[in-house]
Amino acid sequence: MAVKLKIKKGDLVEILSGKDKGKQGRVIEARPRERRVVVENLNMMKRHTRPRAMKNASRMGSPQVVPGGIIEKPAPVDASNVMIVCPVCNKTTRVGVKVVERHGEMRKVRVCRREECGQEIDK
Ligand SMILES: [Zn+2]
Predict the structure, then answer these.
(1) For residue 94, what is the DSSP state?
(2) Cα(103) to centroid of ligand 1, in Å?
(3) Whether 78 and 102 share a structural domain
(4) Are residues 11 and 70 in the same domain?
(5) What's 1's domain CATH number?
(6) What is the separation of C-alpha 67 from the centre of its chain, rounded to a whole number of angstroms?
(7) What is the whole-number distance in angstroms between the Cα of residue 120 and the centre of ligand 1?
């Protein structure tokens, strides 16, 4: 059975645990098979890189070197550690699925599970 995440690329989510707890960010990558998401500018990991010779540099005369340094990039977060922020009520919510008719077709849409809201998340 295909693994599906209710969180998609482009969703606004809030981090529920760890050092970025309570912070919100945009999902830039969803990895349903790992049940993980990558959130823009959150859960940043520092990676040290060493200077190294560039591949195929021999043809260009003197060897070229890629400088080393520290790269900061967001690490994937477990999908259970984030909660979607409803674009309608601006609160964190669980995601429900509703079937609606749209242009004569039955389609599944994601909805906010807050009782006072219940609006579609996908616009
Ligand atoms: Zn809502």
Answers:
(1) -
(2) 24
(3) no
(4) yes
(5) 2.30.30.30
(6) 29
(7) 8
For residue 101, how far is its CA from the centre of ligand 1 (angstroms)?
20
Residue that the structure tokens 């477990």 belong to: 78
Whole-number Å distance, alpha carbon 90 to ligand 1 midpoint, is 6
pLDDT digits (tens, 9 = 90+) for 76-122: 999 999 999 999 999 999 999 999 998 999 999 999 999 999 999 98
Burial of 116 (0-12, 13-18, 19+ CB in 10 A): exposed
Q: What residue type is 46 in one-letter code? A: K
What is the whole-number distance in angstroms between the Cα of residue 87 and the centre of ligand 1? 7
Over the stretch 30-71, which tens digit does the pLDDT of each residue have?
999 999 999 999 999 998 888 888 776 556 667 788 888 998
Q: What is the pLDDT of residue 116?
A: 96
